């Protein structure tokens, strides 16, 4: 299968006088695990929303291979959002539905209007959802209401849903920010395992440098909407971080690491 590079070309998003994303150009090869770091307001979340087309670029373009993503409309845009799955900090599950149905929602982009409205799924789709839950260690929870799960379990359900979407790219926006250290590790391990085993490109926004260094092939640092570092994890030294963020930014990240480490571990 031909590999395709995700390319961002002079991508910008402007809100009034604020350039939330400012002339970002990146090439991300298929199968790479990329962490995006930076202080609050750096533009990390806006960048992922632009890639998924949840936000529209003010300037520039997004391409996957020869396809201009910024020009997609209607059903083509819906299929792009299927192929480029978004995993949110708040999980975005339907809490009153069981886990299995929440995972099966990932198939709706391929359904017609009627079957989407009635939530009708084939036996093959149900088997695929069970396999996805098995990869995330959640088969025993399949018939449990999503709202009764722990945060870490809900985030793994969201990852299983992305697998059932058959996504080619996973965009994870602060997926571990609200989790205790144990569940954060389970979620990050799951993302990396899927990246390695399935060759799915992963872009994940993170606050903690240690997590970014441990899991990533590549780290991108943003400040004030701009990319100010793009390189290998081992090149992101404390001196580089201080140069990139200044002392206040470095302190903010260190405080986030300390706060995360101080949380009590909760069983999955």
From TrEMBL:
Keywords: ATP-binding, Cell membrane, Membrane, Nucleotide-binding, Translocase, Transport. Transmembrane segments: none annotated. SUPFAM superfamilies: P-loop containing nucleoside triphosphate hydrolases (SSF52540). It comes from the Bacteria. InterPro entries: AAA+_ATPase (IPR003593), ABC_transporter-like_ATP-bd (IPR003439), ABC_transporter-like_CS (IPR017871), ABC_transpr_PhnC (IPR012693), MetN_ABC_transporter-like (IPR050086), P-loop_NTPase (IPR027417). Residues 6-249 form the ABC transporter domain. It is found in: Cell inner membrane. One of its GO terms (molecular function) is ATP binding. CDD domains: ABC_PhnC_transporter (cd03256). The keyword Disulfide bond does not apply. The keyword Translocase applies. Belongs to the ABC transporter superfamily. This is Phosphonate ABC transporter ATP-binding protein. It comes from Paenochrobactrum glaciei. The gene is phnC.
